[in-house]
């Protein structure tokens, strides 16, 4: 039997670890139910919810290329319509101008009110989706700017680079 994502199966708990439980599905195929997929509430100890030999209904949530099977007990339980949360409403737009914390203009560079002096970046609307390389080069540039600023500020305080000590 081929195991496909989304199918619900019955299995027997064969092992318990601090990070989850191993479940034998059928034909010697074993999958892992991660601790976060055991119950809807917080699970501190897997042993509080499962015992070796328990027969459980699981839902296949992923199958890796190397044969690892990810299972979920909490997704296998059909919830009544009253328990299913409706999707979140989008957040309302913030008014432009003013800084993030509700003050005046704060010298920010345009909408969004980020203050360059406090380490913020001016707001730039996304023109298309930037590639990973674009994001990485921007991160490196910002990081180098911040590090040089930190070095300039700390050298004077420590007396580094030729500062005369009395």
Automatic annotation (TrEMBL):
It comes from the Bacteria. Gene3D superfamilies: Nucleic acid-binding proteins (2.40.50.140). Residues 99-114 have a biased composition (Gly residues). One of its GO terms (cellular component) is ribosome. Pfam families: S1 (PF00575). CDD domains: S1_RPS1_repeat_hs4. InterPro entries: NA-bd_OB-fold (IPR012340), Ribos_protein_bS1-like (IPR050437), S1_domain (IPR003029). Residues 6-74 form the S1 motif domain. GO terms for biological process: translation. Keywords: Ribonucleoprotein, Ribosomal protein. Coiled coil: none annotated. NCBIfam families: PRK08582.1 (NF006363). This is S1 RNA binding domain protein.
């Amino acid at each position: 039997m081929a195991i496909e994502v989304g199918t619900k199966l019955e299995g027997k708990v064969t092992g318990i670890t601090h990070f989850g439980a191993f479940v034998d599905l059928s034909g010697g195929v074993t999958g892992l139910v991660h601790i976060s997929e055991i119950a809807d509430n917080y699970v501190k100890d897997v042993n509080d919810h499962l015992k070796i030999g328990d027969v459980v209904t699981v839902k296949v949530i992923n199958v890796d290329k190397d044969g690892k099977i990810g299972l979920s007990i909490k997704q296998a339980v059909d919830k009544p319509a009253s328990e299913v949360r409706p999707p979140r409403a989008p957040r309302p737009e913030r008014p432009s101008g003013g800084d993030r914390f509700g003050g005046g203009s704060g010298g920010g560079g345009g909408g969004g009110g980020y203050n360059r002096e406090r380490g913020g970046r001016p707001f730039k609307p996304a023109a298309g989706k930037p590639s990973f390389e674009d994001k990485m080069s921007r991160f490196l540039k910002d990081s180098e700017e911040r590090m040089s600023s930190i070095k300039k500020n700390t050298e004077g305080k420590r007396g580094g680079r030729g500062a005369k000590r009395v």
